[in-house]
Design goal:
This protein is of the alpha+beta class and about 260 residues long. The chain contains eleven helices and five strands, in the order αββββαβααααααααα. Helices cover about 55% and strands about 15% of the residues. α5 packs antiparallel against α6, α7 packs parallel to α9 and α8 runs antiparallel to α9.
């Protein structure tokens, strides 16, 4: 969430639709402090970053002391937000939005360097973004890709371990990045890591034929042809016209004559 800072309200207004909510809101929560006989419950104000998505739902994240959205995202109804939270536009305009905009621009520079194969410049930009927002998904992917593109498998594996813990890394908007990262894990011969990575991704993106195709390629590299064929079939169940998967299936069947009758 924290890597996406687009202001879409103007665009929505031009299209004649009501602008979606994006901003900072506050609420009061009860929390327990102290231990034993000194323990007591107190009320404290909590700031959250809120962004409206589809179906009148809003995703919220707590803000840390640097005004960065952190932690696990929570989805609530728009009605819940408007009933139980108070808007704080000053904090959003003067604190949160400028920080998120700067992070987004830093990540975008890193991604340009990455596309141009300028891996060290890309690494610098992604690290700058992560110093401010250590959970930034685009920057984490970018840093890992910059390592893997230059063949630094050891550092790439460190980023892999970080990514598999981030649920948000496998959300649909990051599909192209997690597929690319998995491909680079395989190309760097990190086959077991690639399998774990794709297995994690499949928990959040079950209808992605490219994901299953890449799993099949990885199993083939590991010499596990029967598993490769299993995932090629999964890929083709989703998209029966997937040409690369059809070709790879034929290739596997030629190497595995005993499976021809099951094709």
């Amino acid at each position: 969430m924290s890597e996406n800072t687009d202001h879409n309200s103007a665009q929505n207004q031009e299209q004649g639709s009501e602008p979606r909510i994006e901003g900072v809101f506050s609420t009061t929560e009860k929390t327990t402090i102290g231990f034993g006989h000194t323990q007591k419950k107190v009320k404290q104000d909590v700031l959250v970053y809120a962004k409206e998505i589809e179906d009148n739902k809003v995703v919220i994240k707590a803000l840390n002391d640097k005004y960065i959205p952190i932690g696990t995202a929570k989805t609530i109804s728009k009605e819940n937000l408007l009933s139980n939270y108070l808007p704080d536009p000053d904090v959003y305009q003067n604190k949160v939005y400028p920080i998120l905009r700067n992070i987004s621009r830093t990540v975008a520079r890193g991604e340009r360097h990455l596309r141009n194969k300028e891996n060290f410049s890309a690494e610098m930009e992604f690290k700058n973004a992560l110093r401010v927002d250590e959970e930034n998904i685009r920057a984490t992917f970018g840093l890992g890709l910059s390592y893997l593109q230059r063949g630094d498998a050891k550092r790439g594996e460190i980023v892999f371990k970080r990514l598999v813990k981030l649920k948000g890394a496998f959300e649909p908007q990051h599909k192209h990045m997690f597929n690319e990262f998995g491909i680079h894990l395989r190309k760097n011969k990190l086959f077991n890591q690639a399998i774990k990575y794709y297995a994690r991704a499949s928990q959040y993106s079950e209808r992605d034929e490219n994901l299953y195709f890449n799993m099949a390629r990885t199993y083939y590299e590991l010499g596990r042809n029967s598993m490769a064929l299993k995932f090629i079939r999964k890929s083709l169940e989703i998209n029966s016209d997937f040409e690369q998967a059809l070709d790879f299936k034929k290739f596997l069947l030629k190497k595995m004559p005993k499976h021809n009758l099951k094709a």
